[in-house]
Amino acid sequence: MSEKKVYVLLTDTGTLFTKTIKLYTKKPYNHASIAFDENLSQVYSFGRKGPGNPFIGGFVSENINEGLFKNATCAIYCWTVNKTEFNKMTNYMKRIEALKENYRYNLIGLFATNS
User: Fold this and answer.
1) Which domain of life does this protein belong to (predicted)?
2) Exposed (0-12), middle (13-18) or buried (19+): which is 103, by Cβ within 10 Å?
3) Is the dihedral of CA 37, 57, 76, 39 positive or negative?
4) Angle (nearest 5°) at CA 26 between 21 and 27
5) How many domains does the chain have?
6) Are strands 3-12 and 73-82 parallel, antiparallel or unpaired?
7) Taking Cα atoms as reference points, which of 68, 66, 65 lies closest to residue 57?
8) Distance CA 18, CA 2 (A)
């Protein structure tokens, strides 16, 4: 069975919104994205729909060479999965992308968690 790699990016963009979240989480990174190719040409996450407003967000395809990623600090993790697992993940991502207008930020959840 053929193996494939999956990439997870953990990011700190340095924005005021990020700094505020970091005050609470005390973690170095607070944004997670996923990619399915080593060039990170298609990176997916739940993030800002526009760079200027952190409160309007949902499922987005991100470009790591633009916007908030340009000056971000990132940690990239990679793991190997079999082809069946890879196809399951990419198909699930395609289903989410096809219904992306149904997804929104849960801002209440952001501020109401106690973890």
Assistant:
1) Bacteria
2) middle
3) positive
4) 90
5) 1
6) antiparallel
7) 68
8) 38
Which tens digits make up the pLDDT trace of 2-42? 899 999 999 998 888 888 888 888 999 988 999 999 999 99
Query: Mean of the pLDDT values across residues 66-82?
Result: 89
Evaluate whether 96 touches 103 at the Cβ level (below 8 Å).
yes
- 76-106 pLDDT tens trace: 999 999 999 999 999 999 999 999 888 777 6
Sign of CA dihedral 19, 22, 26, 31: negative
Does residue 68 sit in helix, strand or coil?
A: helix
Backbone phi, psi, residue 36, to 5°: -120, 15
Residue-range definition of the domain harbouring residue 30:
3-112
Other C-beta atoms closer than 10 Å to the C-beta of 40 total 19
